[in-house]
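Annotators were shown the component list below and the corresponding predicted structure, then asked to write short factual statements about the assembly.
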Amino acid sequence: MTARNFKHALFCAVITMVVAYPILGLNLVARGTRVGLEGADTSTLVAIFVAAMVVFSFQLYRDTIMAALGKIPKLPPLAGREPMPQAKRVKMESWVLTGIIVLALFWPFFVSRGSVDLATLVLIYIMLALGLNVVVGLAGLLDLGYVAFYAVGAYTFALLSQYMGISFWMALPLGALFAALFGLVLGFPVLRLRGDYLAIVTLGFGEIIRILLNNWTAVTGGPNGIGGIPEPTLFGMEFGRRVKEEGNTSFHETFGIAYSGEHKVIFLYLIALVLAVITALVIRRLMRMPVGRAWEALREDEIAARSLGLSRTAVKLSAFTIGAFFAGFAGTVFASKQGFISPESFVFLESAIILAIVVLGGMGSQLGVVLAAIAVTILPELAREFSDYRMLVFGAAMVLMMVWRPQGLMPMRRTHIELKRQE
Amino acid sequence: MQDLLYFSQQLINGLTIGSTYALIAIGYTMVYGIIGMINFAHGEIYMIGAYTALIAITGLATLGIAWLPLVLIVALICAMIVSSSMGWAVERVAYRPVRGRHRLIPLISAIGMSIFLQNYVHLAQGSRNVGFPALIDGSFRFGSSEGFQLSLSYMQITIFITTLVCMTALSLFISRSRIGRACRAVSQDLGMANLLGIDTNRIISATFVIGAALAAVAGLLLGMYYGSVDPLFGFIAGLKAFTAAVLGGIGSIPGAMLGGLILGVAESMTSGYLSGEYKDVVAFGLLILILLFKPTGLLGKPEVEKI
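Structure shown to annotators:
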């Protein structure tokens, strides 16, 4: 503990106070047309003081603390253990996955309608995150406007059903293809840009699309959005109490069971589940195909990959387009689930949430991304009184992850062989 | 004559907004010039500056102090201190530990910081926009009383003068002072500057502090000009300022000034002659076009990629 440490610690503590006190400690309140000022309650002030003290003592004993942290023994490395044989591991993984999917198939019949609805939303986020994972995690292209493709998918369905009366099953491929086309057209010029410029340009595109949707009132309904989007049908059977479209029958009449609103919710959940599984499987396949290897190669070392004959544009464009395709998928399901969409659902924050899911889960790792999507969507629902803090925690988590564990909670594992040391 | 007056009005409005964009853009361009990262949270620093200024003004009004120059100066100083501390702390917490890693890592960290700060202010001060008192009222008017009148408000004049003073001070600081010279050295070659005995960590902190202080000035000015602030106030302004920085050539301080003015005028011409709703589209469209066709901007130096 030297004098220099003390000075630095004092400085840090003062900065903490300066940063925290005016914003947290003094609240602006509207009194009629005028604005007044109110001091915060004592607990806030105490919290600010405690925070400053913590910063002070941490900085003061920084060297000691850091040394102590360094002494904590690391977990014994796993590398020494005999790795599970490849064939056995694959077999076990596929059993576990099958188990999870079967469980997910039957689970909704035993729980409340609200949780099935939430689970559908989780599945939509899983689709989005898996799609973005291709772009960000595998190809290393930071796309901050991913929500634009989601919007394109949702609006394609909404507009086609409004003007041409297209059903969900027709719109699903159309929405995805249209989003993919958008990705292709948009990606072609911008993918030449360097990493961080690409991020900003995609952000700009996302905002442009949202502003256009908001202001092109004649077609998109502007901020009022589009309602009355049809629900999916099962071989021409509708899930409403009464049949809306001629020629269709209703589900409960065909099977001679009592009408229940839950059928619709569960059906939508199952569709989302199947689509999410398809998304995961397709991307899993793609990862092992030459194109998937090319994404990773280009991410790791662009110059080396190019000198081995990979076309930069083609590889990046394929990742961008495939990512957009799955966002379109998710968008169609979302539109059908909500029955109503407006530009409000497609703001930058949504892109940031999807990005946070990918970053937290571990860029490139499918299992990690799925788990992160579940956590990020469900945790705020469980702790409703803390839901205001959701985005605050997200932001902090993104920073902390980048500082401590940029590879994510469950980093991607590559098939590799470890050489054993000769004894 | 009418058309000319209308045109000049748009030009004045554009230059007003543009000069504040330039103030914010300085922060982006200096940081980019030195460590090559996009400080995504800069827009939030600017928003915090505006909030602090409003808190200071309201606080002084509660104490019964109403002498305008004093109020403005106190608000300005408070905003600059808080914003600079914030800039310093953000760099220390979120950027320094990830410096030198892969390009996307600092950027994601910055996005996280931006979300964090937005929600920090949102939670502390509420999500509604708060009215900013119009301290500087009145305007000069030109033109016939029945036709279109060109108005140049005192607020706009204040913005011009303040921006001019800040820019001159910054230019002098960068070209004359010791820290300014170190800044230039570090932006040319960080490693070499380090070898020559410049404390590069301190210089990097200094750029964040300077950028944040200028953003706070812009926060006070724009807060008064628009008449309200809210926690999302910084996001779009930050993007616009980044556009301005890229337009002028990122890394170049005169470029940021020029870029800000061009962007401001382009925006106000769009809202004057087309429609106000599409002005953001024009700004982002401009950004995309520049990045595609002239990524170095107007005054930037081409970047050579070394293997």
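Statements collected:
1. The longest strand of chain A covers residues 26-31.
2. The CA atoms of residues 302 and 308 of chain A lie 10 Å apart.
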